[in-house]
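Exam revision sheet. Question 4 asks you to relate a sequence to its structure. Input first:
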Amino acid sequence: MRIFIFSVLLLLFEQAAPAQSSDVFLKTIQSAEVYFDFGKHDLKPAADTALAPLIHLCSEREKSLVRITAHTDSIGSSANNLALSKRRAASVKKYLLEHGVSAAKFELSFFGEKKPARSNRTEEGRQKNRHAIVEVLLPIPMTTLEGNIRDLRSGKGVEAEVVVHTKETRDSMHTDTSGYYKAAVPTGAVAAVDVYAEGYFFETKMVKALPGKMPLLVMELQPAVPGESADIHNLYFVGNQAVLLEESKPSLPQVLRFMQINKNVKVEIAGHVNYPNSPPKPKTTFEYRLSVARAKMVYDYLLEHGIDSSRISYQGYSNWKMRYPKAVNEDEQSLNRRVEIRILPEGEH
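Answer key, structure tokens:
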């Protein structure tokens, strides 16, 4: 992932991308669009309304920066369109300067017809493409996150794929042979760290990026060997339904990535429900059908995303294998209400 900062002085409008740094992340705090007539670069009266809140925000936020990105439709030559988009970016900058925005705040980019927002096949689409996007950005300092991935049983380092993502950023990397990695995260952000390695179940952790040097984040991976199983983390459902809660949807791509990296494993997706202090619910009951439906939801997702049916199966286990048969609090009930991945022994399906 590239993280950008501005030059203190902007000497040329031709700058098409900002300078790079691992020290600062530019967070968009507000944006607006302005539109242009065909072949024109002069601002229309509606620009006053669109840009006024950004001008006010820039005056409030002393450290804020402004990114202007200008575009055209596809009518005419690409060279002329590039020049037109440059003039449009310059017009927006001139307007903002005249309304008190500091000259040191700007970064201009222009792409002509290269990055259309809509199809250029219709007049409506072409009108949408004759625009400039204006963003007010706030520089956020970065925190260095260091981690080590280890085998749960041996404690040895594991070479792994690591994805570190926050609300605004996403970075992926591979560890070295000792399992070590380093990533830059916006200070104050909550980051999810997802780890995948061939021969292991995937793992995820949440961590807050605090200023200063953070403790080493150690994550231990469970070997994915026949007969072993692991919970799909953060997989939560609407009550009494096989419908995922919105915050649980990122868990499904994690399962998919696990299957893609571990190309030779065959798995059973096992569904469980929470029904404590009760005898086992048979296959004729709602509880059993619900456990099957939740497992099948994960199974269907994997099929839809290219995993061969010969590698996956699904099974419901009702309340037969609850972790806490006499659960007394929500944490225990949550662990009963789970979906697992079980690695199938050779010949089992």
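Marking note for examiners. The radius of gyration is 26 Å.
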